[in-house]
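Page 47, continued from p. 46.
Same chain as before, 261 aa.
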Amino acid sequence: MKTVQSPKSPRNTRGKTCDLCNKSTAEINCNYCSKMICSICTELTATEISSLKKGKTKLKFECKICQSGQKSDPNQSLLSVINELREQICKLEAKLDGNNNPGDQNNGNLDIDAVVNEMEERRIRSRNVIMFQIVESNETDPEKRIKHDKQKAMQILANLDHQIQENEIFVRRLGKPGNPTRPLRVTMKNERDVKNVLRKSNANKNIKNDLTPIQRNKLKELNEKLQDKIQAGEEGWTIKYVRGHPQLWRVQTPTDQNSNT
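Result:
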């Protein structure tokens, strides 16, 4: 079993040349191999580099070589998260501003705080599942309503053969009162329980993971692209999660198998 290499001590980059392009002046060290990287090769903004160098965030910088090799730490894949957030935040801002041309937004202006906040929000939500189409209790006593929701959640989990105690989950209705079937958020002990429930409920569309607005927007776009491919007659396309990130993925179809024989 291969283990992730521990982050190395930084080297002084002052006046040194980038270890990747051998042209520009190095700005920052890779936290995993200690290579000295210039701002162009990092694909980070000056603000992001400054925050990393000053230790304003617990995130670690990982160079392209480490990202593509075995040294990569999936929990600290900074560049992939930043690139995804740049795209999604700019599109969301464009919608809020009434701007239909998100390409005019400056992707380089994403503050590192937005990345940190998004990653923290994802960490918090990773312990939640959202259950739909569960009718609420007519009781006026809040404690009785919570007990009703817990019992309903426990019944669903039991049907999935997921062993958990009632005191190990927390429930909360989402949205304003008035809708008799508001979504029910169920918070579990850890992310492992959530993954187990989602895996067992794969065919149940009334149980979903708790996504941030940026993640929901990303998934919506992928679904739209998937539908475009299906309508165009392209076979074998699906959405697959790779290292926690949804991507369009093409699987082998019977047509592909026949063409290979």
